Amino acid sequence: MSAQIPIAVRDRVSEKAKKTLNVVAKFVEEECIPADAVFDAQIGTGDARWENHPQIIDDLKQKARALGLWNMFLPKGHYKESPGFTNLEYGLMAEWLGKSRVASEAVNCAAPDTGNMEVLAKYGNEAQKAQWLKPLMDGEIRSAFLMTEPQVASSDAKNIEMKIEKSGDHYVLNGQKWWSSGAGDPRCKIYIVMGKSDPQNKDPYKQQSVILVPAGTKGITIHRMLSVYGYDDAPHGHGHITFHNVRVPASNLVLGEGRGFEIIQGRLGPGRIHHAMRTIGAAERALEWMLMRINDPKKTPFGKQLREHGVILEWVAKSRIEIDAARLVVLNAAIKMDEQGPKAALTEIAQAKVLVPQMALTVIDRAVQSFGGAGVSQDTPLANMWAQIRTLRLADGPDEVHLQQMGRNENRRGQAVAAKINGQKTKAEELMQKYRVKKAEIGSNIRRSNL
Fold it and tell me: Which UniProt keyword terms apply here (predicted)?
């Protein structure tokens, strides 16, 4: 709640945001987390899992809107549609949303819709906003984001091969996509698709475009839904989709030909922060489950409660440190985004994107270990949490891509720091001569003390 806001950022959080944060926390703890089990039960089994969505979601949406919890993610000062919260303020709210499977959708702040709404709000024209942004912001429809392709190394987005070719007043799309998150939902009505419209352009970052493709357009085939460590995430799903001569109006192009990279970079920056803060929330919930387990009086291995075994309290302490440290990294990135925009905060965003999932996986794994066999089963939320967060080390760019870029950026300081250190050495030698002393030999003080 607002009392738990880190002291380092508390003066940057408005009273409005603090009050809303308290409402979010209460809504998640008292309404959403208990609803997670109902959601799973209402999904059902077999093909029916993909044919409708649980009623509990619509009921939660009504409660959320009545509480004023809706579309909090669009940052203040960047979008006219914003409810008035900064990236920092929404980040604190997103942490609570990450503790529940249904919470983000209940307040219309679920991926990939958030990123897609940001694309439409920032880059879409008025007609595109009226047709797609408004129903998305009203929670009437859902959307999917289609970028990754199975036949190429999509960690380098320049490799993307989906063809987007002009044909009169239409564009024709041919190719395939997978990990098309959200494509399984019957409420998904629009795909945001990235492909190549000018593959011969000498600038590899001007070859791509982004276009809006209505779900169900002739020529689209959804072949299967991919599972994540065995979880199919119905009805949301992650589709493997092919496009065969799919024709969409030229007016569906976003921003203009060759602007794809610009759009996608603008989309992914805020999304990474959202993922990171939700992941902090998941790590907090895992720690709570571990605390419950180690204090269970019925669990007494070797005659002691789990909390009485030394290594367990060490796990708890390390988890507390790691969560708190990771939170500050994410909030720092959010602050820089608020002050200078996502492009200026690329390094800070990348730090959060790499650090937070690794931290959360470690904390969740400790919680799993404390539960023993139950930890890897469906009897706790831990196994599913681990599976979902493990994908974040791949989503929005794999860790290695961000680490390589950060490493290159950091290494640019190499010559400057070498010059600084050599200058310090030279200054030290000058001081030695001035004070007529010689450099102390290693261990000389020890030898004298032993004489």
Answer: FAD, Flavoprotein, Oxidoreductase
